[in-house]
Every structure is written in C-alpha cells, then in structure tokens.
Design a protein that fits this description.
Glycolipid transfer protein HET-c2, putative, mainly alpha, single chain, 6 helices
C-alpha cells in the first residue's frame, strides 16, 4: 500500500530543469499534487487557496495545450506569450508561484509557531509588497 506522497503523479523534486528551463507539463503535474494535498485535509479553510491554485494551473495548462511547442518550458511559455496583448498564462503562472510559495511558507512556519500566527505571517511575507 502506498502513502499519499507516493501516489502523486509528480513531485517537485522530479520536475526536469534543463538549460532551457523548467518543464511545464511536469511542473503542472507537481502543482496538481498540492491541490490533492488540500483534499486530504478536508478543511474549508484551504478552499480559497485551493481554488486559486487550480484556476492558475488551468490557465497555464490551457496555454501549454494550445501552444505545446512554444510552451515546453515555463521560460519559453513566458517569452512566447510576451508578444501578445494579454498574457493570461504568464499572469496565471505568477499567481500560481505566489500561491505555492505562500503554502510552503505556511507549512514551514506552522512547525515553529501556532497555526493562526503562521497564516498571518505567511500572508504578510508572501502577498504583501
């Protein structure tokens, strides 16, 4: 019987990073794992951030599916989309990274201080300028 981590499609540790950049499909698969983690908590407290992360994954994935060759890495996706009037995937990627950073900070801080303070501290450090 496997544990939750072993059941994930992709871990961030296994996302290929080459001289061309971060593999987009693998990064999105690893990001999906964070959404699955929230499902295991079964708590409404994570619903807003889970929804936000899912929406931003969808924006980046839509770009990958519509422009697969130009979006093979996150870096290529950004460069390719830069010339367009609206950079939906790039904006989604920015917010996805911020959401993932917020959650990573939250979990790391939760080990050191109590949970309510952890959420306030993480939000202050990641989302505020």
């Amino acid at each position: 019987m496997s544990n939750f981590i072993q059941s994930l499609k992709k871990s961030f540790v296994d996302v290929p990073v080459t001289e061309d950049g971060v593999d987009t499909a693998s990064f999105l698969d690893a990001s999906d794992g964070v959404v699955e983690l929230f499902n295991h908590f079964n708590s409404a407290a994570f619903t807003p951030v889970q929804s936000d992360i899912k929406g931003n994954i969808a924006k980046v994935r839509a770009r990958l599916e519509s422009h697969p060759t130009e979006s093979v890495t996150l870096e290529k996706l950004i460069v390719n989309e830069k010339s367009e009037k609206k950079q939906t995937a790039t904006e989604g990627l920015m917010w996805l990274l911020r959401g993932l950073s917020l959650q990573a900070r939250l979990f790391n801080t939760a080990r050191q201080i109590n949970l309510p303070n952890s959420r306030k501290d993480s939000t202050r450090r990641i989302l505020r300028p």
